[in-house]
Each structure stands twice: as structure tokens, then as C-alpha cells.
Amino acid sequence: MIERLSNYEQSSPMITKIRQRWFEIDAMSGVGLDPVVEKIPQEVWNQVGKGNIADGITFFNQKIIDATASQTVDYKINANFYSGEQGRRALKNTFDYLKKTHPEILRVCDGKFADVGHTADHLAAEIFEELDADAVLLNPYLGSDAIKPFTKYKDKLVILCVNTSNPSADETQNIPLADGTPYWKFILRKSLEEWGNNNIIPVLSATHPENLIGIRSLVGQLPILLAGVGSQGGDLNQSVPQCLDKNGYGLMISASRAILYPERQPGESFPDASRRAITDLKNNINQAKTLSHG
Amino acid sequence: MIERLSNYEQSSPMITKIRQRWFEIDAMSGVGLDPVVEKIPQEVWNQVGKGNIADGITFFNQKIIDATASQTVDYKINANFYSGEQGRRALKNTFDYLKKTHPEILRVCDGKFADVGHTADHLAAEIFEELDADAVLLNPYLGSDAIKPFTKYKDKLVILCVNTSNPSADETQNIPLADGTPYWKFILRKSLEEWGNNNIIPVLSATHPENLIGIRSLVGQLPILLAGVGSQGGDLNQSVPQCLDKNGYGLMISASRAILYPERQPGESFPDASRRAITDLKNNINQAKTLSHG
User: Fold this and answer.
1) What band does B293 get if pLDDT is binned at 50, 70 and 90?
2) Chain A residue with minimum CA distance to B148
3) For residue B87, which residues of chain A lie inside 8 Å, CB to CB?
């Protein structure tokens, strides 16, 4: 593994952590831990007591983590789901559990934050110190003022929502600038060149595979968080081959609902169903890798 | 007051609420309730007990509210400051207190959120139902998918971060599109025309008064949240006159640190100092109104 790692240029610690994990488990699959209280299985409430929201979310997440960790490169935890006092307790518990049981897996705090000044400093301290997340998802609209309070943590990683996979991203991100460059590509170049300490990687979308043609000439060997696979209609076979890095990895591709609430087979426990779902995701990604470009 | 209100076109309930407040107190001043634990005065901890973060923030906010309400159009509460379990309890307590004691004042949940799909639905329910905020600050980068889950609450208000006051907004928001329009102006037009139910108003910046020339021809009589006054260097005299609506109001201008932690005069209590600070803000804005354009 060390030999293959040395085949990359020097990078920041969290990028190395991602690469090590790719090699270790030969997978690029991840899990979005975005629990919806109403969808948490009855077994969980039987265990923790009905109405105990913080413990219910925590217990559910722990079971999902135990079932999926061996095939997971990153857990992406969207803070926007962990609402109120109970939600925030579950958020902290989940980060603590991941750190204790699977320190080798990247802990990503989603939230698509963008704030500035002392608010951004406060937010960065909450995410990188209190929660001890490895990485955070940020929104580029406010420019570097909203990013640098995070990239100044040189050992941490910023994952920038450059080109998102929701349908309306077209109207705001694909619009051409005076020189014809789509706005998202301008943001991509600017952020990678100016906003970080070699600790920014982009979110790009699988829903427009044509946007990904030649993407490695823009981002070099950086990991890419590829969004929009699954429920949003992004196609792995169309998008994965042209995004691979020189070692045949290069991507983090996570699913949330498909792994948290898969259809269960008769007699199957919910963690077993989730294990089956992450296995499918892993295999589908690895299958797509074998296809040639375009 | 009713006569002056009828001088506006029909609008959504929260825009009417803002206008009523302008007339009622003849002011456009507001308060950003963004408490930093380390800056909360010792008197507060003496009262609630040291280390009791949730109660400390709540008590501090209540005292600031009591001292400033009579001169305040809106309280802008940035959720990004209310971190962890304790912070979220204080956030809920603060919204509850405002609703109970000053239902006539606009309760804005800041956070500059942008998320999509069922995450956005969840976030909107948290902010507009659990917290019962009147308005929310959102980020436009993801397009209408991130906005419509909020604007579908027709009786609530979305305040869109169109042109922010931080220095780096220049690099991402002022860049010209193919037709020469700055990106933020494209976002302004698109959002007002397509994303809402007459319940979107913009954040614009006082730091570039030249951007505000002729702004009423773009936004009509909509209220504007004018950012960047005070610590960010925006000048009231340069920016206020060209943003007034036809009744001589049209703006919400809030300060945070200047009102939460003003320099205290000998023997002055912290609420009295904050009352003095909001009075200064109100008077400075009303003074700027009397200056002619340009």
C-alpha cells in the first residue's frame, strides 16, 4: 500500500487518509448518515424507549456503522438533520462513536455551511474541534472568507460544493461567464488555486457526465466527492470511468436512504439489509471502473 | 398607519409585518443575537451559575431583548452560533421568549442555509415550525431546489443572501456573466421572478454603495436587508438614501457585536449600554435618511 501511496504527489493528511482507505478495502463507497426519525425501524425504539430521540438516532447510527464499516471509505453526516437539543446530542454521540470504533474512516460533517468572520471561526471550532470531524462540506457563494476559517486547519479537509447534483444546480452553476466558462468551473479553479492549503477537494455531480469529461486535467489527482448517484439519477457507468485517478481510485461515492432504509428481505435484520446495500454500492462502483471511458 | 400601508402593493404577511414595525417605531434598526460565550458579562454567570451555558445564553439574550425591543424591527439569530446541545436549547428558548414577549417583532433565523431534497424539507420544518421563525436567511448557490422548500410556507419569509458584505463576495458575486451582468444581479432577478411566492427579499451590501444605485428599479418596494454596516465598513450615509422605498423606509439594518458588547460607561449596566447602542444605530439610520441621494 505504501508503494501505491507514494505514486501520488504529497498531499494533506486527510487526503492521504482517503487514499489509504481506498487501497485497504478496494472500495470507493460511503454512507450518508442522515437519519429521519420516522423511518428508524421499530426495533430501535423497542431497545431505547419510544420518544428518546437522541438515543434512538445514536443507536440506529451505531448499528448502521457496525454493519457497513468494512466497506465504507467515508461517513457523511449531515448536521442539518440533527435538529434541536436531542439532534445535537445524537450528532456528537455519532462522531464520538466513529472516532472510537473506526478512526481509519473519514468523518465528514455535511451541512453545506457558508458564513463569515467570527461566525465562521465559531463554526469551524465546533466542527473540527468539538465534533472532531475530519472534513466539512462548504458552500462557495460567499468566497474565500467563508472557506479560509476552515482551511486554516491544515490537517483537516474542506469538501467544496462546486457542482451539486440537484436539478436546479443547472440554473445557478452552469451559467456561462463572459469568457464562456461555466460558473462552477470558475469556482473550481479559483478555490483550488487560492482558498486552501492543499486541503480542498470538490463535490462534482454524476447527473451531468458531460461535465466530467477531462475533469482530471482540472483537478489533478485530488479525490472527488461524486454526488447524485442513485436516487438523483446519476449513472455510475457514465461518470465513474472518466473520474478515476492514476491508481484507479479517485472518488468518494456515498448513498444515504438506499443504505439506511433498504427494502428488507423476509427475516432480515435492518443492519443486515444495510450491509447488503453497501455491498451492492461497492460492487456497482467497482464494476463501473472496469468500463472504458465514454 | 393603515393608510400608509395601503400605499404599498399587496404583499406576503411577513413583509407587511416589517412595514408595520417601521411605521410603528419610526426605525429600521435591528439586533443580531449572536452571543459568544466568552463575551457574555460576568453578571449573567453570577445569576445563572457558571458553566450553565444554555441558561447563560438564554438569560443574556432575554436581557438584551428587553433593553432593545422598543427600537428594533427584527431580531436576527444566527443558528451557527448556537452549537451543540446547550446551544440548541438556548436557540429554542430565545425564539420562544421573543414570540411570547414581542410577537410584533420579526424573528429571523440566520444560518445562510442551502440544502436540497428531504434535508431542506427537514430544515424548513425545524426553522418554521419547531422554532417558529418568521424568516430565514438562505444561500442561493444551489438554486431553487434549496429555496422552494422554504418559500412554500407562504406566510413565512426567505431572506436571500444575494450580495453579501464580506470582502471576498467581490470575487464570487461580482464576476460578470456573458451579457455583462454581475452574477449577484442575475441571482437577484432570477430568485425574485421564479423562486418564491412573493415571499423572498434580498440581502444587499452597504460596502459597495455603487451597487445600490438604481436598486429600487430592480426590487420594487421590497424590504432589503442591508448588510455590512458598522464593523465591515459600510457607510449609512452613502447607502441608505438610494435604498429607501416610497414611504421613506425599505431597509432592515442590524448590528450584532456593537449592540451586544458595547463599551460600558462607569456604573452602566450591560442592558443599559445595549439600549444606548441600539438608540445610536436607530438615530444614525434616520439621520442618513435625511441626506439626498448620491
Assistant:
1) low
2) A168
3) 88
Domain spans of chain A, in order of start: 14-287
Q: Which CA distances in Å does B7 have to B4, B154, B199, B248?
A: 5, 22, 19, 12
| Residue contacts between A and B (CB atoms, under 8 Å) | 158
In angstroms, the CA B96 to CA B119 distance is 24
Report the residue of chain B nearest A127, measured CA to CA. Answer: B83
B223 and B108 Cβ atoms separated by less than 8 Å: no
**Residues of chain A found within 8 Å of residue B37, distances taken between Cβ atoms:** none
For residue A61, the model assigns a pLDDT of 98
* Backbone torsions φ then ψ of B276, nearest 5 degrees: -65, -40
State yes or no: pLDDT of B294 exceeds 50: no
Question: pLDDT at position B208, please?
Answer: 87
With beta carbons under 8 A apart, name residues in chain B contacting A80.
113, 115, 119, 122-123
- Give the closest residue to A41 by CA, choosing from A30, A50, A29: A50
Do B141 and A172 count as a contact with CB atoms less than 8 A apart?
Answer: yes
| Amino acid, res. B158 | V
CB B75 within 8 A of CB B98: yes
Crossing angle for the helix pair B84-101 and A84-101, to the nearest 10 degrees: 170
Burial of B100 (0-12, 13-18, 19+ CB in 10 A): exposed
Catalytic residue among A76, A92, A99, A112: A112
Catalogue the active-site residues of B. 112
What letter would DSSP give residue A35? -
Residue B201 near residue B223 (C-beta atoms within 8 A): yes
Identify whether the C-beta of residue B114 lies closer than 8 Å to the C-beta of residue B141.
yes
Question: Would you state the cell numbers that stand for residue A105, as one nine-digit string?
Answer: 474512516
For the domain A14-287, what is the CATH code?
Answer: 3.20.20.70
Distances (CA, A) of A243 to A11, A21, A204: 19, 18, 10
- B244-276: pLDDT as tens digits: 999 999 999 999 999 999 999 999 999 999 999
Rounded CA separation B13/B154 (Å)? 8
What are the backbone dihedrals phi and psi of residue B113, each rounded to the nearest 5 degrees, phi first? -75, 155
- Given the DSSP bridges, would you call strands A251-255 and A29-32 parallel, antiparallel or unpaired? parallel
Please tell me which of the candidates A112, A122, A130 has its beta carbon nearest to residue B115. Answer: A112
pLDDT tier at A10 (50, 70, 90 boundaries)? confident
| Amino acid present at B126 | E
